[in-house]
Amino acid sequence: MLIRQIQSVEVRPITTAHITKTMFLLGLSTPELHETIQSELSSNPALEVIEGRFCPSCQKPLIDTLHCPICSRPKNLSNDEPIVFISPREEYAISYRIDEEVENSFEETSVECEDLPVYVLRQVASELEKADRPIAAHILTCLDKDGLLRTPLIEIALYHHVPLSRVEKVQRILQYADPLGVASSDPKQALLVQLDVISQTRNVPPLARRAIEEGWELLLHHQYPELAKILGVSTAKVKEIAAFIGKNLNPYPARANWGEVHQPTTPYREAYYTPDIIISLLNGDENAPLVVEIVFPIAGKLRVNPLFREGLREAPPQKIEQWQNDLERATLFVKCIQQRNHAIVRLMHTLVKRQREFILKGDAYLYPLTRASLAAELDVHESTISRAVSGKTAQLPNGKIIPLAKFFDRSLHIRTELQKIIANESQPLTDLELVEILKARGYNIARRTVAKYRAMEGILPAHLRSRMKHQKLPASIE
DNA sequence: CTATGGCACGGATT
DNA sequence: AATCCGTGCCATAG
Predict the structure, then answer these.
(1) Which end of chain A is more exposed for a tag (fewer CB within 10 A), N or C?
(2) Is A456 within 7 A of strand C by CB distance?
(3) Cα–Cα distance measured from residue A335 to residue A324, given in angstroms and rounded to the nearest whole number
């Protein structure tokens, strides 16, 4: 570990400016980082972005055009060793977060963890004519993991020998079901549906609809001035609209905490739609190494423009100081970005290695880890870890997006144990009895604490829990 | 009288 | 230094 560290960190004088700036960058979430880079990029001519490539064999976006971290991985490494790398993905530049209101509507409807297709179908079954149900089912089974329909409608129409308009009608109905915008053909459509629904209950910026319709691409790439021109309003106004969209809408309907049971007092109440870190399983194999992508919100690599460095020699005398200054700032910035990235990679490497079980098997296997202990292991300051963790989210191999802070939960494993006990109880157990059972299983906690955990998980007190276990949802269809 | 939830305190964590 | 979390004590509901 130590050796690796020395090899990869540049041996250059590290100034306090480095440290402060790196720390600042570390604390930013992906969209915030995007903002910062963009503003730096537009104000400093010495900076440039070189377009990234995709790995020809595994298709991952690469920040380093020389070799792909997955395909060039030495074969003799243990499978416990995760593959961690920076992944340039501009499409994650906007942050999407459900706000309270929208989230509440989730709580009312989502009851049990179940498949997205089943869940949606259950909602709309009564609205559909019998003949349309196979079409709905067909659409739902074709959804990708974002909840979008990538299959052309016409294909489905042909398959069922019905007119295209009929399929469109079914799609329309599905789009207005719970993960709003689900089954849309593209993110744009999904956004429009959500906008439509939200506008019924409260005010939305008047131009939001047109902004999405005409400038979705521009919006995605934060090209506000261009968009402003199209819409005929000021750039500030456009930013306002973009902020509204980012906060209230979600172009990928299924990317929430899908399957997470939303309860009023769950500690991780916020659900995010865009991850800062994507964890997947190589080839989907249980024993394969984990692939950890750190999302980097521009489409390539940031570097100092070599032409600018060249041009400095022929700089006009009155500009030379300015240019020198630009060059210095650019170098510093690039270095800080690299350091930030390196810090996150290192952090995620150990974190993922430690919590592999949790990532693969779920909540019960979370190893209670504190930021402090990880800081000690990595030999960095605690605040470094705190900054890097706070406000960031990770997408697990099963598609759920969770706050990175969950990796440091001290009581999650006990809470899931508690859930299991209560789920299997034959008669409602009182908190005191639960304490005894937990003690027998090695968890020594106070009675009062059990009550708190119950509340967190949204489990009712014993006298309000009836014996109605094991009953699935009543036949609510029809 | 028992089971729970509210409040607040102290120690651990960030 | 600020915040979070487990716990004890006490009031209250059943």
Answers:
(1) C
(2) no
(3) 17
Phi and psi angles of residue A314, each rounded to the nearest 5 degrees, phi first: -100, 20
Q: Shortest CA–C1' contact from A408: which nucleotide?
A: B13
Pick out the nucleotide with least CA–C1' distance to A382.
Answer: B14
Side-chain half-sphere exposure of A239, counting CA atoms within 13 A? 5
Q: Is A269 exposed, middle or buried (0-12, 13-18, 19+ CB in 10 A)?
A: middle
Structure tokens at A402: 């969770």
Indicate the angle between helix axes A133-141 and A116-124, nearest 10 degrees.
160
Summarize pLDDT for A270-320 with one digit per residue, the tens: 456 678 999 998 877 888 899 999 999 988 899 999 999 888 888 788 888
Q: A343's torsion region: left (phi>0), alpha (psi -120 to 50) or beta? A: alpha
Phi and psi angles of residue A401, each rounded to the nearest 5 degrees, phi first = -110, 120
Gap from A258 CA to B7 C1', Å: 35
A411 CB below 7 A from strand C atoms:
yes
Cα distance from N-terminal residue to C-terminal residue, chain A? 61
Residue A161 neighbours by CB under 8 Å, 6+ apart? none
Query: Between the CA of A208 and the C1' of C14, what is the distance in angstroms?
Result: 53
How far apart (Å, rounded) are the C-alpha atoms in residues A397 and A291? 9
Contact A71, A283 (CB under 8 A): no
Domains of chain A as residue ranges with CATH:
2-65+275-408 (no CATH), 116-248 (no CATH), 412-470 (1.10.10)
Structure tokens, A369: 């880890």
Mean pLDDT by 10 residues, chain A (478 residues): 41 67 90 90 92 85 81 86 91 64 40 62 80 86 81 88 91 85 87 84 78 84 83 84 80 61 37 80 84 91 91 84 91 93 94 93 91 92 92 84 89 91 89 92 93 89 69 34
Token pair belonging to A126: 């009564």
Q: Which amino acid is residue A326, in one-letter code?
A: D
The helix/strand/coil state of A280 is: strand
Q: What are phi and psi of A49, to 5 degrees?
A: -110, 130
CA A223 – CA A400 distance, rounded (Å) = 30
User: Nearest residue (Cα to C1') for B2?
Assistant: A430
Integer distance in angstroms from CA A364 to C1' B2? Answer: 31
The angle subtended at Cα A53 by Cα A143 and Cα A212, nearest 5°, is 45
Copy the structure tokens of residue A335: 């270095």
Distance of alpha carbon A461 from alpha carbon A454, whole angstroms = 8
User: Nearest nucleotide by C1' from A432 CA?
Assistant: B3
- Closest nucleotide to the alpha carbon of A445, via C1': C6
Q: Which strand B bases fall within 7 angstroms of a protein CB?
A: 2-7, 13-14
